[in-house]
Please model this.
Amino acid sequence: MRIAFVTSGLEPGRDGVGDYARLLSGELERQGHSTAIVSLHDSFVTGGKVERLGDGASLRLGQDLDWDVRFQRAGAFLEQFSPDWVSVQFVAYGFDPKGIVFAQVSRFHRLLDKRATHFNFHELWIGNQRDAALKARVLGWLQRRSIVRLLRQCRPRLVTTTNGLYHALLQASGVKCFTLPIFGNIPIECRDRGWLDAQLRSSGIADRTCHWLFVFFGTLHPEWLPEPLFFRILTASRTAGKSPVILLLGRPSGGKQRWLEWEKTYGTQVRFLDLGEQPPERVADVFQSADAGISTMPIELIGKSGSAAGMFDHGLPVIVSRSDRFRGEATEATVEPLIIRLDGDFEAKLASGFPRRNPAWKLSAIADSFLAQLEAARGS
Model:
């Protein structure tokens, strides 16, 4: 099968959806399929740039180019590649600063017209929480209208999203869709063994067995609050005779000031260690060595979190302490045995031992599911 992916950006390590498309493309190539990728709104290139991508190629189109020029060049690239499917890996903010894509509807329609098309929504419109501010609700309404218009114009054969909440929101907007889980972007076998232990020793933590290691990876969402989680971790730690260490790994995306505030507030009781941005092999070592991850994503949206997916792939349990009340149709949270909820049994769960499983990268299995959904949509 020949599959072309369309994304907004494609810079390695700087665009989560772009990394997703690169990895999925590579796995499909490994299975014998032909792939190509087009990024339409790439902030890391000027003009147009063609790159090798395994046995295929990618076309990266910079933001300095006129939108019509970008779509024309993308169309010519797709025409030359002649895909059986075009898979649009969609994040509205990737194509517009406000996430309102009315201006791109006709362009996407011309690009995708008469092609078998798949849309995969990594994010949807904002303002779905019951306590969302009026501004967020209005902006979300406009985002939703533009996305629904885009889908009605392009008429994709298949629409998927990453989690149950987004699935329900799309269905409620009249869009038939399916769920396609995500995989983490950190390969399992890529591990720099002992790197984390060396960092701990250099920070004065010599005896690893006396400590519990909790890790944040990536974005520290501003809506997430440290309490009551930090208090309850301290309570459980005292009971178990452990000293908690909280690690920060990767780019916190504007949350570094919050990290410094936490360190100032809790630093006499909790060790904070900023590991910075690290290559995949060191991230893998942290994931396979820590006791638990901490997600700042609400439980309802944990299925869209690439950070959480990476931890799950490496067998690392993830503490999820945030739950937002969403408007509309109720949906169940993602069922994942490695999720540790902040419920009445939280301290007892930590004291009894952190759940783990053997590392297993879900990339291959999700690629298989993706192909099966394409085949089913083509035959329907």
